[in-house]
Amino acid sequence: MEHNESISKLLRLKRYEQPRPDYFEDFLAEFQLRQRAEVIHRPFWNIAWDRFSSFFAPLPSPRLFAAATFAATVIATGLTLNWSRQEAVTPPATWNLSTAAQMKLGSDQRAFTTSKKRVSSVHYVLPPRPTGYASAHSF
Amino acid sequence: METPETPDSELVSRTQAGDARAFDELVVRFSTRLYGLVYNMTASHEDTNDLLQEIFAKAYRSIKGFQGKSAFYTWMHTIAVNMTINFLKKRNRRKTMSLDDVDSGILNDPDFINATSHGDPSQDANLVELQKKLNESLLKLSHQHRAVVTMFDIQGMPHAEIAKILKISEGTVRSRLFYAHRQLQNHLQEFMKH
């Protein structure tokens, strides 16, 4: 695919569009001023993100960066879940016999309530008449 | 200031080691070239100034991650093109750029007048129209096509260098150029006869 020479020639005219001559002299001074202002006013999250990015910067590809971030997130989530589960089964700090008894009582009550519920729900069917014709009180 | 012979790689190493003056030298070295790239993509001197400041600030913050796998020149241009394209996307969402916003500084440039003038008053009067049409046509291209045209036609970069900067194949660069030239040809037909 050959490029169009007449179009290129016309576009080359745009090379002449330049800023005023002293622009580039002032540019560096303005850059340094902005850099200093940025150091003073830069928000914390911005600095933190930059440090996080530069920590992973040596990774050869963006895919690897994404994988590393995903792995770090999964590990952090797993650790958090594990920690919260352990905290739920940890006994109270003041552990003594009365606490143990209360806990036992509590669990017994729960068992009783459960069994009562189970009993009330059982349905008995009585036979309509005695199976034998002989009287129960025969002399 | 450094001597012009100091290679970019040495200035980069010194910046990575914490020498801010070495980076100042890189700013001086690259600002003219990157200005041309950004300006021809945005068509506004004001936007170019702000964007160029941001580009160098971003480069300074990220320079520790630069490992020298590509030339520093390529790395800087990649940052500049990506940031400019992102800026143009945002600007397009904000407003559709009016041609009144396009700079007309070129018309006062004696080099431009010498290059285009043929001593014919009617042709000289066409300068205004030509510049307007040129910018209008470039703004009609997509950001990716405009980037390729700017680097190849205006800045004179080879296909291979553009491919590295945009992280695309040389074939894609050539096909984008072909498509962009065809588009521009349709818009600029009347000026191409001269």
List the helices and strands and how they pair.
The complex is a heterodimer of chains A (139) and B (194).
Chain A: H1 5-11, H2 23-41, H3 44-56, H4 62-89, H5 97-120
Chain B: H1 8-16, H2 20-42, H3 45-62, H4 72-94, H5 110-116, H6 121-140, H7 143-154, H8 159-166, H9 170-187, H10 189-192
Helix pairs in contact in B: 1-2, 2-3, 2-4, 2-7, 3-4, 4-8, 7-9, 8-9
CATH top level of the largest domain in chain B is: Mainly Alpha
Instruction: Give the total of domains of chain B.
Output: 2
* Uncertain segments of chain A: none
What structural class do you assign from the helix and strand content of chain A? mainly alpha
Give a description of the structure.
The complex is a heterodimer of chains A (139) and B (194). The model of chain A has no long low-confidence stretch (mean pLDDT 70). The longest helix of chain A has 28 residues, at 62-89. Chain A has one domain (2-116). Chain A contains five helices and no strands. Chain A has 139 residues and is mostly helical. Chain A has helices spanning 5-11, 23-41, 44-56, 62-89, 97-120. Chain B has 194 residues and is mostly helical. Chain B has two domains: 7-100, RNA polymerase sigma factor, region 2, helix turn helix motif (Rna Polymerase Sigma Factor, Chain: A, Orthogonal Bundle), CATH 1.10.1740.10; 101-194, Arc Repressor Mutant, subunit A, CATH 1.10.10. Chain B is built from ten helices and no strands. Chain B has helices at residues 8-16, 20-42, 45-62, 72-94, 110-116, 121-140, 143-154, 159-166, 170-187, 189-192. Chain B is elongated and about 55 Å long. The model of chain B has no long low-confidence stretch (mean pLDDT 83). The chains are: A mainly alpha (139), B mainly alpha (194). The interface between A and B is large, with 30 and 47 residues.
